[in-house]
Design a protein that fits this description.
alpha/beta, OB fold (Dihydrolipoamide Acetyltransferase, E2P), Rossmann fold, 3 domains
């Protein structure tokens, strides 16, 4: 497998192609099209079936759902090892098995289904075609209850609906609408039905989710959700890790690392999941993120938890002049760290870098660059936050 959920295959001519819904070792018939100089396509028929093949889910986003779960974990590890080799990372610590998600179904605490005349569903990859579903098998119990309730509502005003549900069974809903006006706001109030305890509305935009602002309509604005050892606030309109139980396992591994000192700088820190957990290891913790709502939530949580030495600052990590810090922790988006930021981290006083990543390819590129700048990769641990998909989370530590 290669990153992105494709199986690497060869035609009878020897030409390489990328095929979805296949498993290494199988022989398949596929429809292929050339895009960007590479043949890509989808499996039409399996001619020689892998013993690890299982019935594929209808959910179009579950690009590994045709693979038995233990093999999924092995394939994800293979993708990481391949990315490290391609990036030239040598003499690295051995990559252990991928830590399984505590739940392989009903693990998600947030979903964003599209609204169609036939119900809720998800779009096909690289397509505007939506597959409607009776429910989402990855959604937790609270979200499945909300999904069932919404199937009986008139949803014509919405394009998509973001649902965030916690372990207590409460749900926040944020409706994505063409235009947020009096009519849509009045309609959205009707969504405040069990288990939904709070509703917001946001206008549709091509700039990214909630970039055009959002309006609180009714009910609660936040929920509390257990992450690792802390109860942290979450909303339907800002990022928080979608699989709290799996994130808790990563937090446990983070806390098992030999970390501590005077100053921790947590970049791309969101609302402080990691910074708050590490608060008792450092004299001063600064969490930096661009999202105003995440910063506000983090400050509120720090105050509620009595962590006065944890500070939150809104800013773009790529443009910061890094302060003196014993340890820098980064959790960037899929694109990874920009080269100037990598250079700035190296030029800082930090002796330890904790790198949390959601993309093996960009992490490998960045880590290779850090190694070339004098850092040493001490450990890398893969975690499965999204079973039945190609996605993989990493926790790594570099020192110098």
């Amino acid at each position: 497998m290669v990153h992105g959920g494709y199986a690497l295959a060869r035609l009878a001519s020897g030409e390489v192609c990328l095929v979805r819904n296949a498993i290494p070792g199988e022989t398949v018939q596929a429809h292929l099209e050339r895009a960007g100089g590479v043949l890509r396509g989808n499996t039409l028929e399996v001619l020689n079936e892998s013993p690890d093949r299982v019935e594929r889910q209808a959910h179009p986003g579950l690009d590994y759902s045709h693979v038995a779960y233990p093999r999924q974990l092995a394939l994800k590890r293979d993708v990481l090892v391949d990315a490290m080799q391609r990036a030239g990372i040598r003499d690295a610590p051995q990559v252990g098995p991928v830590a399984a998600s505590p739940n392989i179904w009903r693990y998600r605490a947030v979903i964003q289904p599209a609204v169609t005349p036939d119900g809720l569903g998800y779009r096909q990859p690289d397509s505007h075609q939506t597959v409607t579903l009776e429910t989402d098998p990855t959604a937790n119990h609270a979200l499945q209850a909300a999904w069932a309730m919404l199937q009986n509502q008139t949803l014509r005003h919405a394009r998509e609906i973001v649902l965030r549900g916690n372990d207590n069974g409460d749900v926040l809903a944020a409706a994505i609408v063409p235009v947020a006006n009096d009519e849509t706001l009045a309609w959205a109030k009707g969504l405040l039905q069990e288990p939904v305890v709070g509703v917001a509305v946001a206008s549709e935009t091509t700039q990214g989710r909630f970039r055009a602002g959002k309006s609180h309509v009714a009910g609660e604005r936040r929920l509390l959700q257990r992450y690792g050892r802390l109860d942290l606030s979450v909303t339907a309109t800002a990022f928080a890790q979608p699989n709290p139980a799996a994130a808790g396992r990563l937090v446990d591994a983070l806390l098992a690392m030999p970390l501590g000192g005077h100053n921790l700088l947590d970049l791309y820190g969101g609302s402080g999941l990691f910074g708050l957990h590490l608060a008792d290891r450092f004299t001063d913790v600064t969490v930096v993120d661009t999202a105003a709502e995440s910063i506000e939530r983090g400050r509120s949580d720090a105050q509620r938890l009595g962590l006065d030495h944890v500070h939150f600052a809104r800013g773009d990590a790529r443009r910061l002049t890094l302060q003196s810090a014993d340890t820098v922790l980064v959790d960037p988006p899929r694109a990874g760290l920009a080269k100037p930021l990598r250079q700035a981290i190296t030029e800082s006083d930090a002796q330890t870098l904790v790198y949390v990543a959601c993309d093996p390819a960009s992490w490998s590129r960045d880590t290779s660059d850090f190694i070339n700048q004098g850092w040493r990769l001490e450990s890398v641990q893969p975690f499965d936050f999204q079973p039945h998909t190609h996605h993989l989370e990493l926790l790594s530590r570099l020192v110098r």
